[in-house]
Amino acid sequence: MKGVNDSRFLRACRREPVDCTPVWFMRQAGRYMEEYRRVRERYSLLEICRTPELAARVTLQPIRRLDLDAAIIFADILLPLQSMGIDFDFSKGEGPVIHNTLRTPNDIRNLEVPHPEEGPVSVFEAIRLVRRELDSKIPLIGFAGAPFTVASYLIEGGYSRRFVNTKMIMYYHPESWHDLMKKLTTMTIQYLQGQVKAGAQAVQLFDSWIGCLCPADYTSFVLPYSKSIFERLRPLGIPTIHFGTGTAALLELMRRAGSDIVGVDWRIGLKEAWRRLGGKVGIQGNLDPVAMLGPRDKLKEKVEQVLEQAEGKVGHIFNLGHGILPETPVENVEAVIEWVKQKSKRTHSVKSRAAKAVSAVGARRKKR
Amino acid sequence: MKGVNDSRFLRACRREPVDCTPVWFMRQAGRYMEEYRRVRERYSLLEICRTPELAARVTLQPIRRLDLDAAIIFADILLPLQSMGIDFDFSKGEGPVIHNTLRTPNDIRNLEVPHPEEGPVSVFEAIRLVRRELDSKIPLIGFAGAPFTVASYLIEGGYSRRFVNTKMIMYYHPESWHDLMKKLTTMTIQYLQGQVKAGAQAVQLFDSWIGCLCPADYTSFVLPYSKSIFERLRPLGIPTIHFGTGTAALLELMRRAGSDIVGVDWRIGLKEAWRRLGGKVGIQGNLDPVAMLGPRDKLKEKVEQVLEQAEGKVGHIFNLGHGILPETPVENVEAVIEWVKQKSKRTHSVKSRAAKAVSAVGARRKKR
Questions:
Q1: ipTM of the assembly?
Q2: Which of A153, A191, A218, A225 is catalytic?
Q3: Where are the domains of chain B?
Q4: Which of these, A120, A21, A2, lies nearest to A351 by C-alpha position?
C-alpha cells in the first residue's frame, strides 16, 4: 500500500514525477468557508489557536470538503511569541496588533527566548490530533514566521507599508538587530523542530514581507538567519518551503537560504522565477488571490497560465501567491482544484509518454 | 554660453557623458523642508496646486536651497481629473481620498474627457512662471499619473493594498476597463503636451502602483496605453521618464512602452535592472527613501552602493526609489547630493580618462 511518502505533495517536494500537480492553498482553513465561519462565531482566532481540538478541527475542514493534496496546521506566526512575553491581538480583518512593540535596543536586550517546552505546545498537540485523523495520503505541513517578518511585526506593531521602524533598527542599531534575529532564529528552529517531532511532514517558513528590502540589506540582515534555519532543519529529513511576496529581485538570494521549495507570488512569471532559482529547487505558486474572486472564465485562463509557465516540470506545487481572501467563493476554490488536476494530468501524461518514447528509442538504439 | 540642453540632467536623459551624475528627488518640494511647511500652514495642498504663483514658489524652494540638477513642477497626479467631475481631497498624510469612485461600467461610461483647454490650466501657468525664474542650467520636469495608477485611485478611492476593485473591473468588465484606459490615455497625452508647450523640458509618467500586477495582466491591460502615451510624446522631442515601484519582474515590459529613462525602486539592484532593460535606455533611481532618515554613515554607504551598481554608465540619473519622506532631515538631503557629485565625479573622470587613453592608443595604432 502506498503511504504518505508517495503522496503527490511530498513527491513534488522531492522533485519526483507525479501523476498531476499537487495543490493546496495558503489560509485554506479560513473565512471563505462556511464551516470555519461557524466556528469563528463562537471562538476568537486566538482561542482556536490555543485549543488543540479546535485548531485540529478547522485544519481538517478544507481537507474534508476539497480535493487538496496537503493540510497545513491552523496557527498564527505570532503564536510562539506569547511565551516571550509579547502581547498581541487580532483586529477585525486587519491582522495582528502588537501591544508591547520593540522600539529600543533595551527592549530587544530584555526579550527572552523561552525554553521550547514553554513554547506554544498547543500547536504540537494540534498537530498530533490532526495526524490521527488525516487520511494516510494527505501530508501535514507545519509552519513558522521567518525572523525578519516576525521582527517587523514586533517592531512596527502590525502590518506596515514602509517598514520605517524596522529599517531604523537595522541601520541605527545593527547589533540590536542581529541580536533580535539570533533570538528569533533560535526560537524558530526549536518551534519547527517541535512541529516535526509532533508529526508535521513538511514545513513552510513565511517571510511574507521581505519584498520591502533591497537585495543588499536582505543579504546582510536576513539571509544568514534564514539559511541557518534551513541548515538546522535538514537533518530532520523533511521537505522545506521558503515563502515571500514581492521577491522578484531576491530569488537568487532566497535560493542560497537552502530550502527545497521556494514559494513565489504572482508578480513574477513562473518561468522567469524558475530560471532565476536554477534547476535544483522546486517552486510553489503563484496565482493572484484576487483572481480567485472570479469571473470563472478569467480564473480558468489564469490557472492555465500558471500551469503553462510551470511547463509540467517536476517540483511544481500549485498554490496562490499569498493567502486566500475571505471573500473568495468556495465554488471557485473547488473549480481551481479540478482545473489544476485535469490540465496538469494531461501535461504530466504527455511528458511521461514522451519520456517513455525517448527511453524506448534509447533502448532500441542500444540493442543495435 | 552653455544652455539648458547641455545640463547634466538633459545630457543624461540622452545618454551622453556628464561630468557627474545628475540628481533630483521625487517630492523634492515637500514637507521635509521648513520653507514648504510654512506655505502649507496657510494653504492646503490643493490650494497650492490651483494657484500658479504658490505652485511656482514651492517648486523653486528646493532649487534655491539645494544643489539639484532638475526642478519638477509642484502638482498632483489627480489634478487633471477635476475637469472630469472627479471630487477628491487629501487626508492628513494618507494621500488622496476620492469621493465619487468609479465602481460600475455605467460610472465609467459616463466619465467625460474634457477638452484640454478646460483642463488644469493652473499647472500650465505655474510651469510658465517657474521657467521665467529658473536658472538657465536647471531643466524643469513636467509629470502625469499613468492611466493604470490614476484608474486605481478612481476605482479604489485612495491608496490600496490589494487593488481588488481595480482587478475586478479588469476581469469582470474588460471593455469598461479598456474604455477607462482610453479616456485616461487621451487625457494624459493632452495634459503632458500642454505641459511641454508651457515649457516643461522633460516629462515623467508615474505608474507608481503597477507592481501589484502579474506580467500577463500588465501586458494586456496596461502596456498598450503607456506605449501609446510615449509614442504621442516622441514628436515633441523631449526626454521621457517612466516610473513605477515593485517592478522587478516588469522591466522588460516597461522597456517596450518606449520611454528614454525607466525609474526603478530599491527592490532591485541597478546592475540587474539595467541588464533586464537592455543597453539602450537610461535608469533613474534607486535609493530607498527610508535610508534618507539616517544614520549618516549607513546612508553614505547606500548612496555609494547605488553609484557602484550604476558603474558610471551614461544615462544614470540619481533619485530615490519613491518620494522623499516628510520626516527626512534636510541635512541628509544636502549630504546625499554632495556625496553623489563627489563620488560620481571621480568615476566619470576615471571613465573619461580611460576612454581618452583608449582612443589615444587607437590613434597611435592608426598612425603606424
A1: 0.93
A2: A153
A3: 4-367
A4: A21
